[in-house]
Design goal:
With about 120 residues, the protein is α+β, with helices and mostly antiparallel strands. It is built from 3 helices and 4 strands; from the N terminus they run βαββααβ. It has helices at about 15-30, 65-75, 80-90, and strands spanning about 1-10, 40-45, 55-60, 95-100. Strands 2-3-1-4 form a 4-stranded antiparallel β-sheet.
Length: about 120
């Protein structure tokens, strides 16, 4: 499992509830099309967290990099309905930071091959 992380802040004029609804429309469409496995939206609580990461955190689970690449291909086609959903989210945010992590150890990793 690979997990694509996005941290962001909202532009001043953007409603937090409208932003979350837009993310659900966008990523829900990708889940429905099986281009991503699942996603989660979180918001910083009590101001706790690194200052250089945004107030909102979105994590998107994909089976592997091939599935993530397919999702990127779909979004980059700029065709509706995904394009309008993506634009609604993208136009709402600023201060974006991205990361890609994986479950560890990898399921295909051979045991006994560790080097110290």
């Amino acid at each position: 499992m690979d997990i694509y992380h996005i941290w962001c802040d909202l532009k001043p004029e953007v409603s937090d509830v409208q932003f979350v609804e837009a993310v659900h429309r966008y990523l829900g469409k990708l889940v429905e099309a099986e281009q991503v496995g699942a996603y989660r939206i979180c918001r910083r609580k009590l101001g706790l967290g690194p200052t250089d990461l945004g107030e909102f955190h979105i994590s998107i689970e994909v089976r592997d990099l091939a599935q993530l690449d397919e999702a990127f291909r779909e979004v980059s086609s700029r065709s509706d309905p995904v394009e309008s959903f993506h634009a609604a989210v993208n136009q709402s945010v600023m201060n974006l930071t991205f990361a890609l992590y994986r479950d560890f150890p990898d399921p295909h990793r051979k045991r006994g091959q560790e080097k110290f």
